[in-house]
Design goal:
Helix content is 0%, strand content 43%. The chain is an all-beta fold. The strands form seven sheets. It has a 20-stranded mixed β-sheet that branches. The protein has an 18-stranded mixed β-sheet, with no helix packed on it.
Length: 493
C-alpha cells in the first residue's frame, strides 16, 4: 500500500488507519503518521505479518491510547522513518511494536518520549536499530525505550538522555551485538534512566561523550553475561542514587577505556548510604584491563552515617584484573568521613602452585592519596584469598595515606588500618604464594598527620621497593615514616 501524503488520526477511534486482517505486504507513507485525540487513530496494524514499512517524515503519537502506532501481531519487516519517532500524552503512542521479530529499524532523527509507554521500539529479535539523532526520555513511565530479545547493532548518533520517567531512555535486550552512542549517556531525574541492560552477552559499547549517573540505576551499562569492551570518550560519573555511573558484567569483561575522569557520587547530612556510585564491577569473572585518561576521585561523604559511601570511584573483579592504568592522579576524599578509592580483585579462576595474580599491573602517572589496593578481596572488602598476587606497581608521584596489600588481612575491621603487627595471611595459609612483584614510587611515602591511623604495604613476599629513585632494602617490618604520628609500614607477613 502506498500513500503519498500523511496518515492522520482524528477525534473518533480507528480513524486514519491502515489495517490488514491477516497481513500487510508493505506500507509506504510519503508524509507523516500522526495520532489523533481518539484511541487507535493514526495507526498501521496487522493481526499477522507486516512487510517493510517506510514513513517519509515523522511518526507522532497523540493524546489518546495507541495512536500514531505501528503494530504487528506477527513478524515485521524493515522499518524506515525519515524523521523522528515522537511520543504523545496518550499511553503507548508514537511507538513500534511487534509480537515477533522486527527487521532493521532506522529512525532518521530523534526518538522523543513523552507520556507512559511512548516512543518505544519493542519486539522479539531486533535485527538492528539505527537512530540518526538522540534517544530522549520523557516524563512518562517507560518512555523512549528499546526492548528486544537477541538484538543486532544499535547505533545512536546523538545522546541518550534520561527524563523524569522511570524508566526512560532505556535499552533492555536479551543480547546486543554492539552499541554505539555518538554523544553522551546522561541520566535524568527518574530512576532507571539512561540505562543499557542485557540479560545475556553484550558486544562492544562505544560512547563518544560522558556517562553520568543521577538517580537509582541510572547512567549505567549492565551486562548479565560477558561484556566485550567499553570505551567512553569523556568521563564516568556516579550520581546521588545507588548503582549509578556503573559499568557491570556478571561474566568476563573486556578492556574498559575512559578518556577523561572517573568520579564517585557524594552524600550530605541526612542522606542514606550510597553504594556503587561510580563503580566498574565484574561479579564472577575477570576484567581484561581498565584505562583512565584523567583522574580517579571519590565523592565526598558528609553524611551522618558511620560510612556513607561504599564502592565509590572503585574497580573490582570477582576474579582478576589484567591491568589498571591511570594517566592522572588518584584521590580519596575527606568529609565527615574518609572515603578511599579502592581497587579489589580476588585472584585467578584457575591458579597454579606458584601463580595467582589478582591484579596484573597497576600504573598511576601522578600522585595517589587515600587509595586502597587489595588483592585477595571482594568488592565489599571481605578477605577471600591468601595466595593473591599483584604484579608491578608504579606510582609517578607521592603515595599518601594508602594501602598496597596482597593476600593479607587485619585482625578485625574492614581493612582500613593495615600495617599493624597482628596482620596475617588470609586463611592462615601455611605456604602462601601471596606476592607484590615490585613497587616503584616516584615521590615520597607519607601517612596522614590529620589522622591517628596506620597504613601498610604488605604481602607474604615483596619483590622490590623503590622510593624517589632509591632502592629501599626490605627488612620486615620497615617503618617509612618514623617522624610522624602515623605508621606507614612495609611488612612481609
Amino acid at each position: 500500500m502506498k500513500i503519498g501524503g500523511d496518515v492522520v488520526g482524528g477525534t473518533a477511534p480507528f480513524t486514519g488507519r491502515v489495517f490488514g486482517r491477516t497481513k500487510l505486504a508493505s506500507v509506504t507513507v510519503g508524509g507523516s503518521l500522526v495520532g489523533g485525540s481518539a484511541s487507535d487513530s493514526g495507526r498501521i496494524h496487522s493481526d499477522g505479518n507486516i512487510g517493510p514499512v517506510s514513513i517519509g517524515r515523522d511518526v507522532i503519537g497523540g493524546s489518546s491510547h495507541r495512536c500514531g502506532f505501528i503494530e504487528s501481531g506477527g513478524k515485521m519487516g524493515a522499518i524506515n522513518i525519515g524523521g523522528s519517532l515522537v511520543g504523545g500524552s496518550g499511553g503507548a503512542c508514537g511507538s513500534i511494536s511487534s509480537h515477533d521479530d522486527i527487521g532493521p529499524v532506522t529512525i532518521g532523527h530523534d526518538i522523543l518520549g513523552a507520556g507512559d509507554e511512548s516512543a518505544r521500539i519493542i519486539g522479539g529479535k531486533l535485527a538492528a536499530v539505527t537512530v540518526g539523532g538522540s534517544l530522549i526520555g520523557g516524563s512518562g513511565y517507560s518512555s523512549a525505550v528499546i526492548v528486544g530479545a537477541a538484538t543486532g547493532a544499535i547505533r545512536i548518533g546523538g545522546n541518550v538522555l534520561g527524563g523524569a520517567g522511570a524508566p526512560s531512555a532505556y535499552i533492555q535486550c536479551g543480547t546486543i551485538a554492539s552499541i554505539t552512542i555518538g554523544g553522551s549517556l546522561l541520566a535524568g531525574s527518574g530512576n532507571n534512566s539512561a540505562r543499557i541492560v542485557t540479560d545475556g552477552d553484550m558486544g562492544a559499547v562505544t560512547i563518544g561523550g560522558d556517562v553520568q549517573g543521577r538517580a537509582i540505576f541510572s547512567g549505567s551499562i549492565e551486562c548479565r553475561g560477558k561484556l566485550a569492551a567499553v570505551t567512553i570518550g569523556g568521563s564516568l560519573g556516579g550520581g546521588s542514587g545507588r548503582n549509578s555511573g556503573w559499568i557491570f558484567s556478571q561474566g568476563d569483561m573486556g578492556a574498559v577505556k575512559i578518556g577523561r575522569d572517573f568520579v564517585g557520587g557524594s552524600v550530605n547530612a541526612g542522606d542514606p548510604v550510597l553504594d556503587r556510585s561510580g563503580f566498574i564491577e565484574n561479579a564472577a569473572g575477570r576484567i581484561a584491563s581498565v584505562t583512565i585518561g584523567g583522574d580517579v576521585r571519590a565523592g565526598t561523604d558528609d553524611s551522618t552515617n558511620v560510612t556513607g559511601l561504599l564502592r565509590n570511584a572503585a574497580i573490582s573483579a570477582g576474579n582478576n584484573i589484567g591491568s589498571i592504568v591511570i594517566e592522572g592522579s588518584v584521590a580519596g576524599s575527606v568529609g565527615t568521613n574518609i572515603t578511599r578509592v579502592t581497587f579489589t580483585a580476588r585472584g585467578q579462576a584457575s591458579p597454579t602452585a606458584t601463580a595467582d595474580v589478582a591484579i596484573g599491573k597497576l600504573t598511576i602517572a601522578e600522585r595517589a592519596e587515600r587509595m586502597s589496593v587489595l588483592a585477595g578481596y571482594a568488592s565489599n572488602i571481605l578477605p577471600l584469598n591468601g595466595n593473591a598476587q599483584i604484579g608491578p606497581i608504579s606510582i609517578g608521584g607521592d603515595l599518601v595515606a594508602s594501602h598496597l596489600i596482597a593476600g593479607v588481612r587485619v585482625v578485625s575491621g574492614f581493612g582500613d588500618v593495615f600495617g599493624g603487627p597482628d596482620d596475617f595471611i588470609i586463611g592462615n595459609l601455611p605456604n602462601s604464594i601471596a606476592r607484590i612483584a615490585s613497587i616503584v614510587i616516584g615521590g615520597g611515602v607519607l601517612g596522614s598527620p590529620a589522622s591517628a591511623g596506620r597504613f601498610g604495604i604488605e604481602s607474604h613476599t615483596i619483590g622490590s621497593l623503590t622510593i624517589n629513585g632509591f632502592a629501599v632494602p626490605i627488612v620486615s617490618p620497615l617503618s617509612l615514616s618514623p617522624l610522624t604520628g602515623d605508621d606507614v609500614t612495609v611488612r612481609e607477613v
